[in-house]
Specification:
Structural class: alpha/beta
CATH architecture of the largest domain: 3-Layer(bba) Sandwich
Distance between the termini: 12 Å
Bound molecules: flavin-adenine dinucleotide
Number of helices: 12
Shape: globular
Oligomer: single chain
CATH class of the largest domain: Alpha Beta
CATH superfamily of the largest domain: FAD/NAD(P)-binding domain
Number of strands: 22
Length: 400
């Protein structure tokens, strides 16, 4: 199969870039192949929201995949307070002064965009396993992209939107049995009266703690260090030049990584913090590391500040870290010399890692800064890639 562009992954970042391309310079969508094992758009996003029962996004209404930043707010302009929205079972499209979308309204909005752009038809339900740069006898370069069904796609350019990550697990936490990473939690399995320790100070930790308590569990939320409350996960300045210009002026990618990691410390929104304070959930700020393991005799135990407690479940809501080394395609490119800092690709200002190979999403943080992984970062990536969409059709490209 020959196409102009292969996009790896069908999450919101891929959708944002493609919708922008179609808006800037309409082209025949058949010139693009989107490879996604789930065979559908935004399945990872939707599964995460469903798992944690998240009913409102954290980001403002102006952050979404459509090219016009006001499109969502114009379509869902009613924005009652959280209290009013909750009382009305959150049927509104957006909530609070940031006009944060409800999960249902956001997905409805994205689904309409997918239909309008006809991007559903471009999905290949498989996984990219390698990408090799090739040059023909006229010196024209392209990519041979191998899929796990054994087929190969030839493309002029590749956009990696695969959100490749590894789970972050604190050294003292041994996962196994009832000690789980938050990605594996099944809230439906929680019973009344169960003792649950949730480790983490971010939105996921707070969200899971609240939902478990609503199911009748006795929950303790343990964070390292003091409580941090912030409505946005990354300060809005990180999408603007006042923060980004000095960041980009830092030429050392290791220093850039340090800046990103410093900024990305977990916090939770004020509405969630308020709900937690109004609940029966015990909140503990541990000065040191938290440990957790399954003791063969006592079952799950959690420890902090020299104290160990027996519980029924421990959830490590400690997030994940982008790391290209766990994707064979990216690891292969790194092995052939594409630069990275401990798993973060060093891209140029155009988000290019190798000639014609672009990376968007959280993995692009060394260029886009700490907001790279969220929807605002997706819009920033789409801005940069705006004019790199499929080229005008040439003879010899079979999809034309
Ligand atoms: C619970 C949760 C809530 C969040 N809420 C918000 C929010 O409210 N606002 C906000 O701005 N951000 C939010 N984020 C952060 C971020 O926007 C999301 O993580 C978002 O899903 C990232 O989008 P993405 O397109 O980069 O990756 P994903 O949504 O993870 O999509 C990547 C896709 O790539 C596919 N893929 C991976 N490798 C391959 C391969 N080799 N071949 C083919 N396909 C591949 C995967 O199957 C996956 O479907 C949230 C994150 C989480 C976890």
């Amino acid at each position: 199969m020959d196409v102009d562009t292969v996009v790896v992954g069908a999450g919101p970042h891929a959708l944002t870039v493609l919708a922008r391309w179609l808006y800037e310079q309409p082209f025949d969508v058949r010139r693009v192949a989107v490879v996604e094992p789930a065979g559908d758009w935004m399945t990872t996003w939707r599964a995460g929201f469903a798992r944690q029962r998240i009913d409102v996004l954290r980001s403002p209404g102006v952050h979404h995949p459509a090219p016009d930043d006001m499109a969502f707010v114009n379509a869902h302009g009613n924005w009652p307070t959280f209290e009013a929205a909750r009382a009305a079972a959150l049927c509104s499209g957006s909530v609070g002064p940031l006009q944060r979308p409800t999960t249902a309204a956001f997905w409805h909005f994205c689904r309409q965009l997918i239909e309008q752009t006809e991007l559903n038809d471009r999905l290949l339900p498989t996984t990219v396993v390698s990408a090799v740069a090739v040059r023909d006898r006229y010196g024209t370069s392209s990519w041979e992209v191998k899929l796990d069904d054994g087929s190969t796609i030839s493309a002029r350019q590749v956009v990696w939107a695969g959100n490749t990550r590894v789970r972050r697990v604190p050294a003292g936490v041994q996962l196994g049995g009832a000690v789980q990473h938050s990605n594996d939690v099944d809230l439906a399995a929680v019973g009344v009266g169960e003792r649950i320790a949730v480790i983490g100070g971010g939105q996921t930790a707070g969200q899971l703690a609240l939902r478990a308590a609503q199911r009748g569990a006795a929950v303790t939320l343990i964070s390292r260090g003091p409580r941090r409350v912030a409505d946005l996960d990354v300060d809005a300045g990180w999408l603007m030049e006042d923060h980004l210009a000095p960041f980009r002026a830092t030429l050392d990618p290791e220093e850039r990584r340090r800046v990103v990691e410093q900024v990305q410390c977990g916090s939770m929104t004020s509405d969630l913090d308020l709900e937690l304070r109004q609940s029966q959930i015990a909140r503990v700020a541990s000065a040191g590391d938290v440990m957790a393991r399954t003791d063969p005799d006592r079952g799950p135990v959690v420890g902090f500040a020299g104290v160990e407690c027996e519980v029924d479940r421990v959830w490590a809501a400690t997030g994940s870290v982008p790391d290209l080394r766990v994707a064979p395609t990216l690891a292969g490119l790194a092995a052939s010399g594409a630069p990275h800092i401990n798993g973060w690709p060093v891209l140029d200002d155009a988000l290019q890692w190798r000639d014609g190979f672009y990376v968007v999403g959280a993995l692009a943080a060394l260029t886009l800064g700490p907001a790279a992984g969220n929807l605002g970062g997706a819009r920033a990536a789409a801005d940069i890639l705006a004019h790199r969409g499929p080229k005008a059709c040439r003879t010899g490209v079979s999809t034309c």
